[in-house]
Amino acid sequence: MNAPLHDRSHLQLVRTADGSNTLRDPSMDEPYHSLHGALQESWHVFIVNGLRAVDTADVDVLEVGLGTGLNMLLTWLQVVEGKCRVRYTALEPHPLPRPLLQAVDHCAQCGVPTLTDAWLDAMTAAPGALTEGLGGFRFTWRQAGVEALTDTEAYDVVYFDAFAPSKQPGLWTADVFARLFRALRPGGVLVTYSAKGEVRRTLEAVGFRVEKLTGPPGKREMLRGRKPN
User: What is the CATH number of the domain that holds 90?
Assistant: First the structure.
């Protein structure tokens, strides 16, 4: 029997192949990140092929699936390093409690242990509250699912980091991707670790121009969709 969706006590801490931590949900038999390397996957998919793929230094990011906050932290570090300015909005219906976030220890594993308290405070802030972080990073999260997204031309990048299509098929639908297409500005991109043919065809059906890219360690390919100008 699956644990209730609001109950996070069943999640298990797992060390991945690159030494970084993730969580595993035994009720779905699914990790939050690739076991080949959580940090390497997030960096390759969402920073290298997402954040850095837009032609602006002033970026609005939407993340579908905030999870352990690793993608958010890596994006924040790009801001701290002066690479870009980011306003970051994350959707997460089932947020993780502070003790679990402390356990994954992302800040220490990314070499920024001094950012731990600020990162934890941002991750556990009230839904809709704006956090203004070091370097001018602006972050807010919504306790809502992507199925209800109504934003229009508000973002430059979408990090689509839902659980796998086989685990959460309701999040990989034409309706969801059409909402994300509308939420992107012309020229904006959506990136996902998935390279399934059905996902590619669904993205194309709602208007994205899709390309297959080299995947992170342990994965041959990933997808990036771009909204035409």
Answer: 3.40.50.150
